[in-house]
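Researcher: I need the complex structure. Ligand is nickel (II) ion. Inputs:
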Amino acid sequence: MAILHLTRKEHFNAAHRLWNPNWSEEKNYATFGICANPHFHGHNFDLYVTVKGTPNPETGCVIDLKILKVIIRKTVIDELDHKNLNLDVPWLSHCIPSIENIAIAAWDRIAVELPEGVQLHKITLWETINNFVEYYGE
Ligand code: NI
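Model: Output:
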């Protein structure tokens, strides 16, 4: 049976700051530069969620894209959009909200919501036009 990868794109705006509270101010600025600025900074994030599966013979689809949209919005987008990722999101409070850590946390929240027969394959998170991260759950 054919296995396909299907991707849904979603978008959110949010603020964050890269800062390790266990480090000195000097080490934080040396490591994170302007990303450590105390009053946070914002990004227009693009989140791509790629699932893997076989088309259902009755629908021709791996997953109903409306269902995938609702899962992504409920578990991730509605939680992050227009929020401060350092202060407002309980499921990111254990980590520095880098795109790497956001992608890992998003994976954990989306994977468990997918219907039977549909697997999460990849989370891609764009932070700027130059920078993005890909996570395959490993
Ligand atoms: Ni940033």
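Model: Summary of the prediction. Strands lie at 4-16, 41-53, 83-84, 119-126, 132-135.
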